[in-house]
Amino acid sequence: MEEEMDKNLAESQVAIFIISIKLLAAKHFPDLEQTVIKRVENGKLTLIPILYRPANWEAYHFAKLNAQPLPKNGRYLSQLSKSDRELELVSIAKEILNVTQPTKTPVLHLKKIIAEGNIEEALNQTEQAIQHSNNKDLQNEIIHLKSNYFQVNKDYRRGIITSETLRVQNRKTVDVLLELIDNIDGNASSNKTPTSTNGTGVAENITQLTTKKFLYLTSCPDGKSPVGFAKEHTAIDDALQDSRMENQVKLQSKLQVKANELFLELHNADNPNYIHLSVHGERPKPKENLPPFLLFVKKDDQTARISPTELAGEFEELAKDNSKLELVCISACNSLKHATAIAKFAPYVIGMNGKIPVDAAILFANVFYKRLFVDQPIEFAFKQALNALRREDYPDQDGIKVHEMPHLFSNFGKEVFVLTD
Known about the structure:
Layout: H1 2-10, E1 14-19, H2 21-24, H3 29-41, E2 46-51, H4 82-100, H5 107-115, H6 119-131, H7 136-157, H8 163-187, H9 202-210, E3 212-219, H10 227-243, E4 249-254, H11 262-267, E5 274-282, E6 293-297, E7 303-306, H12 308-321, E8 327-331, H13 336-342, E9 348-352, H14 358-372, H15 378-392, E10 406-410, E11 414-417
Helix pairs in contact: 5-6, 5-8, 6-7, 6-8, 7-8, 8-9, 10-14, 12-13, 14-15
């Protein structure tokens, strides 16, 4: 019986779990569950749980697959009246047909599924619709897209990537999926390479969507040394070269940014994913009762001092236009309050507590970005960079350990990691 079940499962594109205590307690269910999970994660199977009798199914591994249980209202069929149960069964039958017979799935219907947030179902139905066309390019694109989607979600469940990275990657999946859907009708009987609305191929569009943009900004007033900035820029460029991700990360540099042009530089950078701000920081004397400042150049080459509140104002405006921003790193002495101030406007922000030595800042940037450029989670890259600082055994600066100077914040100002002894 089990061999026959495995054979049928291997030949199927859809598996239906009739949820009940009897099913979950069945002797063969653990093996069945693992087989189904594996095929779903590989994009070869769609799972449809049907809620028949009350059972603690959410505690099982398959519940993490984000498969939409039916009925969609979450009510168990056994608890419904006869008339309500009949209506739900009709609705369930239609949902199953949408998955198993999507050859005439309309474009608007697929977009509606996406709008409802069910990316997996939209991917499966789009693949079914494309399989009945003669367009090999579309078929290859949807296979690649599904594979990437399932791998990203698997990495998230294993704790390899963060929820923010998952959100960004799923948004990219939706963008590319919409391009594919728009090509179903127009290219269903053609073998031409699919094109997006802007005239680029879908494969090229995938590359564009997955390319990260890195904006490096620096400003050095007269009387301050620019040597450390040049070395830090080289360290970041070396990290990019070592990662061999030059085609996936586009590095854009703006040197000697004037204070009054900071807002324009941030907005003219075409929605960067990463912003690295390399400037000098200044901590006023205790008696002055002033906040720390970041030092920028003025029009007359004099020094402009930007407070945490002023910098937060710049990034608040930027957040309204840039939904792709993932990280801001302020590589400057005494920049912790600036990082705290802008943390609510970016998913992740790094700032420095105290006067970090130039060579330590360079080492931190090199190790951190070397990990980040190969798509490691931000928290992991940050931890690795702190470990690198600790191994160097720098002398304390004003009573602060150097490896405790960088601080990482997530949304809403929540500090997510500080390495301490």
